[in-house]
Amino acid sequence: MSEIRAEGVRLELGGRTVLDVPDLALPAGRLTTVLGPNGAGKTSLLRLLGGFVAPTTGLVRCVGRDARSTAMAFQRPVFLRGTVRDNLDLPLRLWGVAEAERSKRIRAGAAAFDVERLLDRPARALSGGEAQRVNVLRALALSAPLTLLDEPTAGLDTGVRESLARTIASTLRAIGGTSVVVTHDSDEALRRGDHLVVIIGGRVRAAGSPREVHLHPGDADVARVLGYTVVRLAGRSLGFLPGELHPAEEAAPLRLLVEETHPIGDRCEVTGRLAGTDALLSIRLRDGERPVHPGDSIGLAGRFVDLG
Description:
single chain, 308 residues, alpha/beta, Rossmann fold, CATH 2.40.50, 2 domains, six-stranded mixed sheet, six-stranded antiparallel sheet, 27% helix, globular
C-alpha cells in the first residue's frame, strides 16, 4: 500500500503560489476525500501527489510507489480512437496484465459502472455522463496501489452523481489500495471518505476523520465549505447546518423572522431571517407542530457550532 506525505511543499505556477502545504499525511489503504471551493488548489495537490508535477520546494514521499503504482482519472476524459473496450484494454495491456485477466476486469467493471452496452461504441462519441463513467472505470480497472480521481462526479445530475459516487467508493475499497478523490461536494466528501482534507486558498485548513472535521470545523471558512450557514451574532460567528434547527419555546435565544412558507408534501418549509442578522435560514416543521405564517417570530433550538 502507498503511504503519502507532503513535507514543506510549495508549488508556484506563473509566479503565483498555488499550494503551500507544510505537512500533510494521507493514511495508507484508506479513501481520502479532498474538499474545497473552485480554485482552491485541489487538482494541483492531486497532481503533486501523483508525481505529475514537481513541487517548487519541499518533498512528496510515497512509500511503495513504482512505475506501475499510480492510476489517475483526470477531470476531463480523454480517449484515443477506437471503441470503449479498446480504451479500457490499453492501460491494462501496457501494465502487462494478461489477456484473460484484462477481459475479466473489463466485463466486471463495465457491469459495476453500467457501461456494458457501450463497450463496442466509439469512445469519442460518448455523452458527457457516459464518458465520465468510462474515464473513472479505466483508472479503477488497473487496481493500482495508489488511485487518484479528480472530481469524478462533477457536472452530473444528482441521482447519477450519487449512484456513481457509491460505486466509486465501493470499488476503491474492494481494491484495497490508497485512494484520493477530489470533490467540491461536501456531502460526497463527508459520506464517502475515511479521511477528509479541506483545502482553501492553496492551504490545508483541516484534516482528519470526516466526523471530527464536520463536528469541529475550526473556523468560519472551513465551516462554509462543509455546508454550514455562518452568521455573526452577538459578536460571535455561529455555524448552522440545514435540518438541525427546529421551532422551540418562546424563550429560545435564537429567533427566526418568518418571510415565506412552502408546503412540501405533508410538511412545511419555513424561510426567514435570523433575528439580529441578515442570514437567511430555512427549517422544516415537524409533524404536529403549530403552523406559522409570514410575519411570525418563532424561537429556534438545535445544534450549532461556535466558531469564535
